[in-house]
Amino acid sequence: MTIENLIKHSNAKPGKLAVNVHKFGGSSLATSECIERVIDIICRHCQINDIVVVSANGGVTDQLFTLCQLAKDDLSVEEPLESLQFQLQGLIAQLLNEQNSAYLTQQLHDDFQLLSSWLATDVKSHRNDILAFGEIWSARLLSAVLNERICPSHAVDARDFIQIQSEQNTAVNYDISRNQFEQIKQAHQLTIATGYIARDLEGRSCTLGRNGSDYSATIMAALTGAANVTLWTDVDGIYSADPRIVPAARKLHRLPNGVARELGRLGNPVLHVNTLKPLDEHATHLHVASSFDSETSGTEIGKFGFLAKQELSVTYSNDVLLVSSEQLNSMTLSEATERFSPICFDERNALMVIKQEQQKTVSQWFASKVGEVTFKPVAIIAAVGHKVASRGDVKARFKRALENTKTLDIVSSTSEHSIISVLPDTCSPELTNLVHHEMTKDAKHIGVIVAGLGNIGERFLEILPAQIKNQSVLENVHLVGLLSSQKALINTDGINPKHALVQFEKQAKDYDEEQLLTWLKSHPYDELIVIDITPSERFSLLYREFFKEGIHVIGANKWAASSSTEYFNGLTALAAQNGSVWLGNTTVGAGLPVNFAINDLRRSGDEIGAISGIFSGTLSWLFEQYDGSQPFSKLLLSALEQGLAEPDPREDLSGRDVQRKLLILARLAGFTLSLEDIECQSLVPENLSHLSTQEFLAQADELDQPFAEELERAKEQNNCLRYIAKFTIEDGKLNAKVGLAFVDLEDAFANLNPCDNIFKVESQWYQTNPLIIQGPGAGRDVTAGGIHSDLVAICEQLSTKQHQVKIKGINE
Ligand SMILES: NC(=O)C1=CN([C@@H]2O[C@H](COP(=O)(O)OP(=O)(O)OC[C@H]3O[C@@H](n4cnc5c(N)ncnc54)[C@H](OP(=O)(O)O)[C@@H]3O)[C@@H](O)[C@H]2O)C=CC1
Ligand SMILES: N[C@@H](CC=O)C(=O)O
């Protein structure tokens, strides 16, 4: 959604568009710069009938609390009051034009009069009215800026419609609240509502406690049946552990509702348990995203399938108390658990663990039941994930992680989605890291998209199920996408590799490049690999987009690796910059380890001076077979049928394919050159070079005569025909050439198995006796095998890769 859409929809019938709720926290609204960022997000993500919920501008609520405390202690409030008013006036002046600024400043002035009088006379009974000012000022200012610059909007005070039982029991009276909201909402205007505040049954101002504005947002979603709630905050999602403590924490892209609730219950700083309550009965999805980095995908909370249910996270708390008493029997304990929803309890040992802030009420209640109970400061560490309490493997790993730690008990919590260990001492960062490592080490989920389901792609997929089963490093690899030139099947929850092509046949939709790129920007996987087994230049041009998103590429397609020097250098730099791995070992020699060998020599300090050989499986097969007894064109069609030749065999015959391969190897060997620097002899007669592939194949017999004549000439000299590639560097001068040659019948190049490639590498270390790599250089099995080898290599690299989590104010 853009600003144009926002304005365009201001004339739409509000009922026609699904409502979305966006909530911005205090730090997202702290300065005029932050507010500008929020305006930008609103322009790009909001529709006119959406609701924007705001917290007080960063720091304002704290100052209001301080003012209340000072007034309560009979201390002077004059200076902090002035400084707060000055700060707010500053924001107004920076963001609004003169006229609007004057209007808002006047309103602010009136509010401060009232505020001063409450502070002076009756701070106790007006405490919540005072705190409510923070959100009112914030909503009023944002609405004024939107009205002045973007679209019609109106600021609403949530106390005018949200009715809760009381400050202690924040359950919402939905019927009354919905009715009241209906009356105050205005069509064709963006609603800017205050978070954090509501009224109780007596009409008194109430606050909604910690993360209260998030709760306000989900209440408003429930009132309006909103499709989505986005909590725009200062972190970019929910992580598998607190990323400030656990640097290896991974972002959880999708959290099932139940798991999110459990994380909130155990004290996750972003997800408060109240926030999720209003969503229980609605199909509303909750997103957590960063207002400081709005294009990065955050965490989505909702109903999800298999993959999201596999995710595990680790959370801890040092602010908990163990409640125990000799008189505590199972009946009282069960009554207490019903009443206080403890973090966990153990009936066998008659104990329960509560949050520190519950101590007073729990103590009073037990005093009236069994007398004194003991409270002991303890800590907890928990593994959280979908139904982990009944997953033996998860429990076993959790216990193993804690085997050298003193624990009081390991219990399933009141929720089926966590296993909790009670610790007698504080939970250290080291322990949190250790447990997180044990619980999540195998859980880096890698999505794979296969583009190109032809000759090689099909074989790659046939082998995939056995590879996933047998290669432990592929354990968490999920096939998520299949693409041909016209059709695409993307399934975020994974495509069963055993039935990949059947599913593709049945379910694939028209291939839309834009849709693919959009999906790639917000996919839920820790890592994503695109395997390009197409012959398409167009597809290779998408690598830039992939690398921008940190996506990895395995290419059997030679276009990108043999593109112009400038483009190629740009691509490799972009990949390095974004942590993308790009492998393409099958681009030369199919599955032969020639690229590995050259890389390895250079990495070890060797210097390569020349590379030569037979680099085309097709041309090797053709010239090893071609003795004049059958027409050349017949052999060519046979090479095509066997899957040796390129989809258009002129790529092979023209020498272009070999030219690309020589370029790729020369680049690997450390030289800067482009295709034009490699002299190339084409074996395709001019009159056949501009036809379509089908036309060319239909006229392929026109090749027979010229090839027969060439063979005769070679035979006369007791030679044979071979298509040779050669690259040398002498006195700094580069000489690169691919073409047909007459080769002595005794030469190593003349005595290969049909289809074999041979690579002769001359280097400082291999001068007098060159390094030779020889073997099949094309074909379904070896090429598909080579791509699998790249997949294993990438997954091995990724299993040790750590993400640097960026947190505003910590490391950014
Ligand atoms: N044959 C071999 O021994 C070796 C081949 N290679 C390379 O492997 C690649 C594939 O070869 P091969 O399997 O023989 O080719 P095929 O022609 O048999 O298959 C190509 C596949 O790519 C698909 N495709 C074409 N363009 C696009 C596009 N823009 N987006 C998505 N998919 C596309 C085709 O779709 P559709 O069916 O709709 O046309 C088809 O599924 C080539 O780059 C080749 O150079 C590398 C080493 C060895
Ligand atoms: N057509 C190519 C296939 C491998 O790259 C060849 O024949 O070598």
From TrEMBL:
Keywords: Amino-acid biosynthesis, ATP-binding, Kinase, Metal-binding, Methionine biosynthesis, Multifunctional enzyme, NAD, NADP, Nucleotide-binding, Oxidoreductase, Sodium, Threonine biosynthesis, Transferase
PROSITE patterns registered for this protein in UniProt: ASPARTOKINASE, HOMOSER_DHGENASE
Protein name: Bifunctional aspartokinase/homoserine dehydrogenase
Reaction(s) this enzyme catalyzes, per UniProt: L-homoserine + NAD(+) = L-aspartate 4-semialdehyde + NADH + H(+); L-homoserine + NADP(+) = L-aspartate 4-semialdehyde + NADPH + H(+); L-aspartate + ATP = 4-phospho-L-aspartate + ADP
InterPro entries named among the record's database cross-references: AceGlu_kinase-like_sf, AK-HD, Asp/Glu/Uridylate_kinase, Asp/hSer_DH_NAD-bd, Asp_kinase, AsparK_Bifunc_asparK/hSer_DH, Aspartate_kinase_CS, Bifunc_Aspkin/hSer_DH
Assigned protein family: In the C-terminal section; belongs to the homoserine dehydrogenase family. In the N-terminal section; belongs to the aspartokinase family.
Known role: Bifunctional aspartate kinase and homoserine dehydrogenase that catalyzes the first and the third steps toward the synthesis of lysine, methionine and threonine from aspartate.
Domain Homoserine dehydrogenase catalytic intervals: 597-792
EC number(s) given by UniProt: 2.7.2.4, 1.1.1.3
All residue ranges annotated as the Aspartate/homoserine dehydrogenase NAD-binding domain in the record: 452-581
Metabolic or biological pathway: Amino-acid biosynthesis; L-methionine biosynthesis via de novo pathway; L-homoserine from L-aspartate: step 1/3; Amino-acid biosynthesis; L-lysine biosynthesis via DAP pathway; (S)-tetrahydrodipicolinate from L-aspartate: step 1/4; Amino-acid biosynthesis; L-methionine biosynthesis via de novo pathway; L-homoserine from L-aspartate: step 3/3; Amino-acid biosynthesis; L-threonine biosynthesis; L-threonine from L-aspartate: step 3/5
Gene3D superfamilies in UniProt: Acetylglutamate kinase-like, Aspartokinase, catalytic domain, Dihydrodipicolinate Reductase, domain 2, NAD(P)-binding Rossmann-like Domain
Superkingdom as given in the UniProt entry: Bacteria
Cofactor requirements of the protein: a metal cation
All copies of domain Aspartate/glutamate/uridylate kinase, residue ranges: 20-290
Record's subunit section: Homotetramer.
SUPFAM superfamilies noted in UniProt: Carbamate kinase-like, Glyceraldehyde-3-phosphate dehydrogenase-like, C-terminal domain, NAD(P)-binding Rossmann-fold domains
UniProt-listed Pfam families: AA_kinase (PF00696), Homoserine_dh (PF00742), NAD_binding_3 (PF03447)
